[in-house]
Write a structure and sequence with these properties.
Elements: E1 17-21, H1 28-35, E2 42-44, E3 48-49, E4 64-65, H2 68-76, E5 80-86, E6 89-94, H3 95-103, E7 107-112, H4 114-123, E8 128-133, H5 137-147, H6 152-165, E9 174-177, H7 183-197
Parallel strand pairs: 1-7, 1-8, 2-7, 3-4, 8-9
Antiparallel strand pairs: 3-6, 5-6
Helix pairs in contact: 1-7, 5-6
């Protein structure tokens, strides 16, 4: 029987810059966490943020938690590929982290809000854009309420914003639905999209300034 070899054992195609975006609360963090179990030559971007760390989050793994002064120093030094203020907190993608991973031939995966995804799309036209969607708007609202990590006022803002963010679907190349209790399926779909794109003709060529 022929031995099955993981995709990470053979480097093929150009390294990809993969953007997974979608409305707040759709489950981007959870899907990425599941994808970390795959044996792939991937680098998961660790986003910098000024927001407070949640109880189950690890600094340097889930996010780079910075204070306002640290973040502003990096922003003034143009060290972010993109950054934006969202709900009173700053988020940014460290540019050098992306460059280093691409130079090693690794596919770079980043999870971004809709605004951040639009910025990366404009800067890197060959970035692979994937929209992570909920099964329904009602289910998205339920997930946001279950998090219980914001005040009622902030929660309402997030729900209203998430509904508007669903309208950005048409700006993406692929749609993956994050079904209830099926993180494995969403992760498998994203993995399959990346694999197919790395076989495309002509290949995507990511260039960062």
């Amino acid at each position: 029987m022929q031995e099955h070899r993981s995709l990470s054992s053979d480097r093929f195609g150009e390294p990809a810059l993969v953007v997974v975006s979608g409305p707040s609360g759709v489950g981007k963090d959870a899907v990425f966490q599941h994808m970390r179990n795959f044996d792939r030559a991937w680098h998961f971007v660790v986003t910098a943020t000024t927001r407070p760390r949640r109880r189950d989050e690890r600094n340097g793994i889930d996010y780079l938690f910075l204070d306002q002064a640290e973040f502003e120093h990096m922003r003034q030094g143009q060290q972010f590929l993109e950054c934006a203020e969202v709900y009173g907190n700053w988020y940014g993608v460290p540019k050098q982290q992306v460059k280093d991973a691409l130079s090693k031939g690794k596919d770079v995966l980043m999870k971004l809000d809709i605004q951040g995804a639009a910025t990366v799309r404009s800067l890197v036209p060959d970035a692979l854009m994937i929209f992570l969607a909920p099964p329904s708007v009602e289910e998205l609202e339920r997930r946001l309420r279950l998090r219980r990590s914001e005040s009622l006022q902030t929660l309402k803002l997030r729900i209203d914003a998430a509904k508007m963010e669903m309208e950005a679907l048409g700006d993406f190349e692929y749609k993956v639905v994050n079904q209830n209790q099926r993180l494995d399926l969403a992760a498998f779909c994203i993995d399959s999209i990346i694999t197919a794109e790395k076989c495309r003709i002509p290949p995507r060529r990511v260039e960062l300034q």
